[in-house]
UniProtKB/TrEMBL annotation:
It comes from Streptomyces griseorubiginosus. Gene3D superfamilies: Vaccinia Virus protein VP39. This is SAM-dependent methyltransferase. It comes from the Bacteria. The keyword Transferase applies.
Amino acid sequence: MFSPEGPSLRELAVQALSSVERGYDLLAPKFDHTPFRTPDSVLDAVASALRRLGPFGAGLDLCCGTGAGVGVLARVCGESVTGVDFSAGMLDVARERTVSRGPRVSWVRGDARTLPFADGSFDLVVSFGAFGHFLPRELPGLFAQARRVLRPGGCFAFPIVAPPRPSSPAYWMLLGFDAVMRVRNALWRPPFVMYYRDFRLGDVRRELEWAGLEVELHALREFGERPDGSPRVRLVVARRPA
């Protein structure tokens, strides 16, 4: 799962016993060599889908990490691109890797639950792989923030993977991971919120609609279909009404 350039077992243990912010500060230099980084295949598929929905002017990558999603925005936004994250270490790595060509890119340290931007600042907000760090009770506020910074007609977009079947090894791996994290948080402070199974499409769609966003689902056909014919990966597009 980890390349030779990735973190050691000891480094992962230190990260896991830290707060979320401190943990990612420590992991930042080697983050792109871990399975936690969104794969390029997902980034490319999302960029392709967003091109069909655009064009867009200003874009925001919510919980940008080392900036992989900012690369997607740079392909579909013509005005400017911003990455926001609360980990200073992740932002440092992102700045080092900024490519000068294309739209103007900026990096901002901030909390996604209280975004430091004016109302209606962006045409497109994206996020990749970050929602496991938010408890279900935090989603209404998070989605309200995304809606607030969108311009009328703007989109909040993110990929979501269909949950694995109980008969698959992936199901039991995710179940075990979440169980370990819950035990860790019951015994150790500060907590490290990272739960992969709490972000469910039905709940997410309902919360987005309650936040005042109109939800569309776009199949990312690059990843095929499940045996029942449903897409393995969808792009959720939540639009602020014009």
